[in-house]
C-alpha cells in the first residue's frame, strides 16, 4: 500500500501533467490563430499594395512620358504634323496633343486648331493656371466622343507656353499591366517564399514567378478551379505540392491577382516558438509540482508523522502524551479525538491503579493487624520485633507466643507471594504454625514445620511457599530448639564475642514438597545472650546504586548495638539499614526480631491455710525472701503492705481453703513480682472503684484503701482467674 | 508490734516498734482502748515502724475520731518514707498531724 503522501503526489502529478498539456494546447491554438490572422492581414495588405501600385505606376509612367515629350519639344507649336506618328510610336502612346496657353490644340494626332472642350478634356487646362503642378493624369475611362477607353496624362512645357497631352488606348494600357504584372511577379515577395500571380478573365495565368507556367490555365498550372476560388477572402489550398494560405482579388479588366504564402512559413514562428515555450512551461509546471509536493509532504505527511509519533509515545505507555497537530482542521480534530481517547484510557488506568492500591492497602492492613504489637515483659526473656511493609505488600511475618509457663516460641517467616494473596497465605501459614506448636506436647519446632508444610502442600493453589525460622526457648535452661525451612540464618550474640551465624543445614521452604522433613537443632543461650532474626528484606535492602546491605553490614550493625537488649538491637539495625538505603525505594518488607534470654526464673512459692494466720505467715515469708534478694527498705515495705492488703482481703472475703504466694525476681530492671492465688470465689479487686481520699476523717468509711495503696505503690498490678483460682499479681522495681 | 507507753500529765506517747498491718493493728487498737482515759494529747512515735497497711490506717482513723470527740489531739511522730507514702496516698496526711 502506498503512503498517503505518495498517493497525493501521484494525483498531483497527473493533475499537473493534464494542466501542462492543456496549457501547451491552448498556446498552440493561440499561436495558430495568431499566425492565421497575421497571414490574412499580410495577404490583404499585399493585395491592396499590388492594386494601388498598378494604378499609381501607370499614372506616373504616362505622366513621365508627357513630360519627356514636353521637354524634348521645349515650347508649344513646334510639333509638326508629320512627326506625330513617329513620336507616338517612339513613346509608345496612341495620341499626342500640343495645347497652347490659349487652350487651342496647336498640333497633335487629331483636332488641331480645336479649342479644348468637354468636361474630361478640360481638366488638364488647370495646368495653365499659375502654381499648378507640372503634370496631371486621369484614370482610364471611356471617351465621350466615341466611347473608346483611353487613359490620358499631361505635362507643362518648361517655358510655360502650354502643355503636352498623351493618351494610352485600352490595349496599350493592358499591355502595360501585363508588363507591370510580370515585373511584380518577379520582384514581389510575401514573407520569405510567398508569391503573387496574375490571371485574366479566362483563367489563363498571365504571369507567375515560374514563367514557364505563364500562358497555361490556372487549373492546369496551379490545380485550382478559378470559379471555386473565393474572391476577397483568405483560403487554404495545396498548390504545387505545398500547403498555401491564399488570397485572390480583382486587379482590373477581368485581371485578378492570386497571393500565396506557404503554410510552413506562416507557422514557422509558431513551430519554432512552441518547443521553447513548452520547455518553459514544463519548467514552470515542474517547479509548481515540486513546490506543492513539498507542501504536501510538510503539511500532510509531516502532520501524519507527528500524529504517528504521538501515537507511538502513547502506545509506549506515556499516557500523559498529547497529540497536538494543528496544521489543518482535519488534523486538529484528529488530535482532539486521540487526546480524548487517551484521557479516557488514562482515567481507566488510574482507576485501576487506585483499586490495586486499595487492594495493597487492605493487604498491608491485614498483614500488620495479625502481627503481635505488645512485646513480652517477663523476667526470663525479652523480645522486640518490627515489620516495615514495602509499598508492595510482601508476606513477611513474625510471631511469638508462650508454650506453657516454661517455654516461649518465636519465629520469622517470609511468604513468596505479594499482594492480597500473599497476605492471606501468610495469615494461613501463621495460624498453622501457631496451632502446630501449641498442639505439640513436645514443643518440637521441626515437627511443627513438617506438619505445616504438609498442610500447605495439600492445598496450595497459588503455588506459593514460605521460608521460616522457628525457635522454642526453654526459660528454665536457656536451651533454644530451632528448625529452619529455607530461611536466612540468625545471629547469636554472646557477651564479649563477635556476632556468630547460626548456620545449620536448612530444610526446604514450606509449601514446596509435601513430604519434606526438617531437622531439629539446638543452641544454648547463657543469661544475657541474644538471637537476631530477620528476613531477606534486611540483607537485600538496596541503596540508590542497587548495592545490597548484605550480611557483613548486618554483622557490623548488630555488633555496634549499645547492648544486647532486643529493643536496642532492633533499633540499631533499623537505623543502619535506613541510613544505607537512603531515599531509594524499598523493594521488600523489612522484618526484624530480636530475643534475649535473661536467665532462669528466681521463683519462690509457698502455700498457707486461708485463716487469720495467713497474713503474718506470708509477710514473714516474703520478708525473708526480699531480705535474701537485697531488696531496699522502701520497695520492701511497699511490697509487704501490698501483700498484707491482698492476703487479708482473701482471708476476709474469698472463703478459700488456701493461699499460695509466689515470688519471682526480674533482672533488668531489678524487681520482684508477687502472685497471690486463692481458690475462693471469683473476685477481681481491680473492678472496685477507688475510694474518695479527699473526705475528712469523720466522713471517711473504712475499706477500699488497701487496694488503693496497692495500685498506687506498685509498678504493675494484674488480676486473672485461672484453674479455679483468683491470681493477683503485683510487681515492684527496686530502683 | 511492740508498744512502749510513756505518760506525762495528759499527754500519752506510744512508741511503736515493728510493722502495723492486719496481724498487728489489733494490738495497737487494744492498747489505745485501755489507755486513752484522761489523755488530751496522743502522740504515736513511728520511729520503729517499718510499714503501715490499711489495717493500721483503720486504727489511726478510729483513734483520730475518738480524740476529736474528746477535744483532744493526735499526732504522729518520726514516720519513715514508706509510712509517709501510705499517709499521702490515702489522704490521711490531710487530717493527721504529722510531726518530725
Attribute tags:
heterodimer, A: 735 residues, alpha+beta, six-stranded antiparallel sheet, five-stranded antiparallel sheet, 16 helices, 23% strand, B: 100 residues, alpha/beta, five-stranded mixed sheet, 4 helices, 5 strands
Fold blueprint:
The complex is a heterodimer of chains A (735) and B (100).
Chain A: H1 4-73, H2 81-91, E1 95-100, E2 105-108, H3 119-122, E3 135-137, E4 141-142, E5 149-156, E6 162-169, H4 170-187, E7 195-199, E8 205-207, H5 218-222, E9 234-239, E10 242-252, E11 255-262, H6 263-266, H7 268-315, H8 329-369, E12 381-388, E13 395-403, E14 407-415, H9 419-439, H10 445-458, E15 466-474, E16 479-485, E17 491-493, E18 500-501, E19 521-524, E20 530-534, H11 536-539, H12 550-559, H13 566-581, E21 590-597, E22 602-609, H14 614-628, H15 633-653, E23 658-667, E24 670-678, H16 705-713, E25 716-722, E26 725-733
Antiparallel strand pairs in A: 1-2, 1-6, 3-5, 4-5, 5-6, 7-8, 7-11, 9-10, 10-11, 12-21, 13-14, 14-15, 15-16, 16-19, 17-18, 17-20, 20-21, 22-23, 23-24, 24-26, 25-26
Chain B: E1 2-8, E2 11-20, H1 25-35, E3 41-52, H2 54-69, E4 73-77, H3 81-90, H4 92-95, E5 97-99
Parallel strand pairs in B: 2-3, 3-4, 4-5
Antiparallel strand pairs in B: 1-2
* Oligomeric composition of the shown chains: heterodimer
The overall pLDDT of chain A, averaged over residues, is 86
The number of distinct β-strands of chain A equals: 26
Major interchain interface with per-chain residue totals: A-B, 28 and 27 residues
Outline the low-pLDDT stretches of chain A: none
Number of helices of chain A: 16
* Estimated share of beta-strand residues of chain B: 35-45%
Strand arrangement across the biggest beta sheet of chain B: 1-2-3-4-5
How many whole angstroms does the radius of gyration of chain A measure?
A: 72 Å
Computed over alpha carbons, the radius of gyration of chain B is 12 Å
How helix-rich are the residues of chain A, as a percent range?
40-55%
Largest sheet of chain B: 5 strands, mixed
Strand portion of chain A:
15-25%
Q: Helix- and strand-based class of chain B? A: alpha/beta
- Count the beta strands of chain B: 5
